[in-house]
Structure formats: structure tokens, C-alpha cells
Amino acid sequence: MQRVVVVGASGSGKSTFARALAERLSAGRVVELDTLYHGAGWIPRSTFVSDVDEATQGSTWVADGNYAEVRDLLWRRADTVVWLDLPRWLLELRVIRRSLMRWAMGTELWNTNREPSPLGWLDPEHPVRWSWSKHAEYRSRYAARFASPAWTHLWRVRLRTDAEVRAFLEDA
User: Fold this and answer.
1) Tens-digit pLDDT profile for the chain (172 aa)?
2) How far, in Å, CA of 166 to CA of 163, rounded?
3) Phi and psi of 36, rounded to 5°?
4) DSSP string for 74-134
5) Nearest-angstrom CA–CA distance, 83 and 133
6) Would you call 78 exposed, middle or buried from its count of C-beta atoms within 10 A (0-12, 13-18, 19+)?
7) What are the phi and psi torsion angles at 14 (to 5°)?
8) CB-based contact 27:21 (threshold 8 Å)
9) Strand 30-32 vs strand 61-64: parallel, antiparallel, or unpaired?
10) Partners of residue 114 on adjacent β-strands
11) What phi, psi does 83 have (nearest 5°)?
12) Distance from C-alpha of 146 to C-alpha of 157, rounded to nearest angstrom
């Protein structure tokens, strides 16, 4: 594992997992796609694709995220894709807890953005709603991609429980 993409629904622990895996592998870089995607005011950055392209030119990196604009680029460059396919109920609990903590603490997320108040949860793109509504879509999408002959060059790892996630990191 030299170039790894970590995918999964909101709340699956992609960023935490990517950092831990990069440390275990002594990877040169962690590429958090949310940081490259979100500009101030949650406006998508026009340089997103070129920034991801530049960030993943090296020989070792771990990238986390699900952005369609760069999915094929990352999968072509990667040697491994790790899919954190945890149960929907668990992800939803994590996203609610994370969103509440970020909001209460006023935590800066990416490029001066902060978690909206719980009233913002009514927005279909808020992580609480997004996680719930996109879970089945992600499961279907990644199952198809993992089965596709187009990606046979990749080591494809599907982790379905926290125990599997921990064991994978321990063995990395």
C-alpha cells in the first residue's frame, strides 16, 4: 500500500482512518478532499481538481473522500481502495454527535467554515441528512465499482465493522 483512497458515507471515519493509516504506512501525505473542495462560505473551490491532481502526484499518499469529480483520477493512481461500509445507524449516531460537538465548540472545519446550528440540519446537504440519505447510494455505487473489471489493478478492501477497521489498521 503506497497510494490509498479511503471512501465511505459521512460519519464512517474516513478522515480519522486515513490519518491513522498514513501514520502506520509512513505515507508522505494525507489528502483530505473536504479541505481541498470547500472554500470559504462552503463555496466549492474552482481549483479542486487541479489541487487533487497535484496532491496525488507523489509515490505515497492516503486520500479520503467521495467526490465524483476526482474519483476516477484517484482510483487510476491508487494501488488500494478502502471502503468503510459501516451500518447506517452507527454512522448516523456518529454524525449527529460530531455535528453537535462541532457546533457547540464553534470548531473551524475547512477554510473558515463552521458547523451550522442544528436548525441547519434541515438542509439536505447537511451531513446529518446527507449521511442518512446517501448511505444506500454509496453502498450500491461502491459495490458496483469493487466488482467492476475496470478496477482489478486495485487492492479493494471492504470493512464492515469497527472491529474490522481496527484489525486492518493493526495489520497495516
Assistant:
1) 999 999 999 899 999 999 999 999 998 799 999 999 999 998 999 999 999 999 999 999 999 999 999 999 999 999 999 999 999 999 999 999 999 999 999 999 988 999 888 888 888 888 888 888 889 999 999 999 999 999 999 999 999 999 999 999 999 9
2) 5
3) -80, -25
4) HHHH-SEEEEE---HHHHHHHHHHHHHHHHHHT-B-STT-BPPPGGGGGSTTSHHHHHHHH
5) 18
6) buried
7) -55, -50
8) yes
9) parallel
10) 108
11) -105, 115
12) 9
Residue 171 identity: D
| Structural domains in the chain plus CATH codes | 3-86+137-171 (3.40.50.300)
Grid coordinates of 44: 466549492
Cell of 61: 499518499
Grid cell, residue 15, equals 478522515
CB of 80 closer than 8 Å to CB of 151: no
